Amino acid sequence: MDRNDFPVSLNLSTPRLDIEVLIWAWNCRLFISPGELEKAKSQKLNWFASYLFPEAEEGVLKGTMKFFLWLFLVDDLLDSENQDSSQEFLNQLLNHKTGSSCGRFDVFLEVLPEIKVWWESLGGEKWQKAWKENWEHYLDGLRWEFQNKKNGIRPNLSDYRLFRPYFSGVFLAIHLLRLPDLVESCESNLLEGKIARLICLCNDLSSAEKEKQVGDFNNELLLMIVEHRISPIQAKTYLVTEIKNLSKDIKLLTVQSAKSSLSCTDWTRRLNLLLGGCLFWASQDTNRYQSTLNGHTIKL
Questions:
Q1: What pLDDT does 181 receive?
Q2: Confidence (pTM)
Q3: For residues 146 and 142, what is the distance between their CA atoms, to the nearest angstrom?
Q4: Residues 6+ positions from 163 with CB-CB distance below 8 Å
Q5: How far is Cα 160 from Cα 217, in angstroms, rounded to an integer?
Q6: Region for residue 123 given its phi and psi (left: phi exceeds 0; alpha: psi -120 to 50; beta: otherwise)
């Protein structure tokens, strides 16, 4: 799939907000060394939000940058920190209450209330209810993925396909895109599901080699090779074909959904910008995938 298959745009506030959010993260002690801060800067982690939400109001974008940076850094720590500390951190997130110290994660728990104040200021009652459901699904998926790694479990392919979109965070991103109002009449669930699937497949293809090197089987390409007893070339060919078909389906569903109303036309346009921005950032505008220090997939 050509990276120009979907539109790409960047929020004009990006360079300034990037610096502001990195300073915020440093002051909050989310980085423990200048090297960690420079790594986040070089990987353009804060630019991710700007590609997904190129039309977002500045205050919303700044909060989104903080939230996604928090997610990126937590994701890295879950791979690198002591497993007991990681388990305690996830337990506290899921149970909504404090417990014993969980090492470096303590700082992230301290910062989370500030981020929650931000997201609680967004949207109306229906938006908030759906956001909380998406957040819980994300945490459940994150725990599922972590337990697999901790216990050396290679998940079966069907379970992985079920959980993958949730622990990727893609549905959190799509729900943030619904601001300021829910778009309920466009019947775009199928379109959104295919967009999530496409993002996850592209991500898994790009990160398969690094995840193989660190023994992480939470990757669709690697699971297909083992479960279907096929060669890496066969598995990759199959997934590339599926990606091409998903791309065609998304374009067709976009046209169909856009016919419903002007609001649906705008909604599908923004969905395609989110998709195009996500794919462009991951493939062209970050060195995160190329970093030998990080063998983990990028989470949304």
A1: 67
A2: 0.92
A3: 6
A4: 141, 144, 145, 155
A5: 10
A6: left
Residues with Cβ within 8 Å of residue 259, at least 6 apart in sequence: none
- CB within 8 A of 100, min separation 6: which ones? 88
Residue 298's pLDDT is what? Answer: 37
Percentage above 90 pLDDT, the chain: 77
Contact 119, 131 (CB under 8 A): yes
Give me the DSSP letters along 231-275: -HHHHHHHHHHHHHHHHHHHHHHHHHHHTS-HHHHHHHHHHHHHH
39's tokens: 């790594």
| DSSP state letters, 201-233 | HHHHHHHHHHHHHTT---SHHHHHHHHTT--HH
Rounded CA separation 65/54 (Å): 12
Tokens in use for 221?
């390409």
Report residue 73 as tokens: 């850094």
**Can you give the pLDDT at residue 37?**
97
Structure tokens belonging to residue 282: 């991951």
Q: Tell me, rounded to whole angstroms, the distance of Cα 159 from its chain centroid.
A: 19
- The pLDDT value recorded for residue 289 is 61
- The label of the residue with tokens 């220090």 reads 293
**Distance (Å, whole) CA 65 – CA 45:** 8
In which residue ranges of the chain is pLDDT below 50? 1, 291-300
Sign of CA dihedral 129, 21, 50, 81: negative
293: helix, strand or coil: coil
pLDDT of residue 290: 55
**Distance between terminal CA atoms of the chain?**
20
Give the Cβ contact number of residue 180 at 10 Å: 10
Cβ atoms within 10 Å, residue 29: 13
